[in-house]
Records
---
Amino acid sequence: MDKALKECPLCGSPAELKKSYYLESELPYSYVHCTHEGCALHHNAPHFSGDIEAKNSQKAVESWNKRENIPAHS
Ligand SMILES: [Zn+2]
């Protein structure tokens, strides 16, 4: 882990940085999600793409830590 992640804003579980590729284009993308399977933020995490993998990951981590694009409050 290159950067510390804040805990999930919904359930308080640890968060995790994930990296993958869009199958159709092989473009890398990164996202941060909640590690708790039942949490809304486990499956519903914004993707960050369009740059090299390290940049995408950095943006995903920064966005998560700033709670951007995350439905933290209902
Ligand atoms: Zn959660």
---
Amino acid sequence: MMAGFEFSPVSKKEKYMDMPVIAQKAPYKEQLKAGRIYWWCACGLSSKQPFCDGSHKGSGISPVKVETPEAKEVYFCGCKNTKDSPYCDGTHKQLL
Ligand code: FES
């Protein structure tokens, strides 16, 4: 090891603490069923996009609860930068 240099690997979760990870730069079109509760992944770490799989634990970001009294089609944000969470507001078009 070089003197004065320390390499400290950080996990993806630590690196992006409090910052969402872009799951995809496009919305997820979903058909939601009536009378259900869904949890939208806000951190971008879930492997079950656009839904929460518990990966946010320790990230400082919490999933967003979506209740559906009636069945409906929605476009969930995939870039995790929307200002209208959990829904796409077009912000993904401005991301590099
Ligand atoms: S996918 Fe995030 S704003 Fe459209």
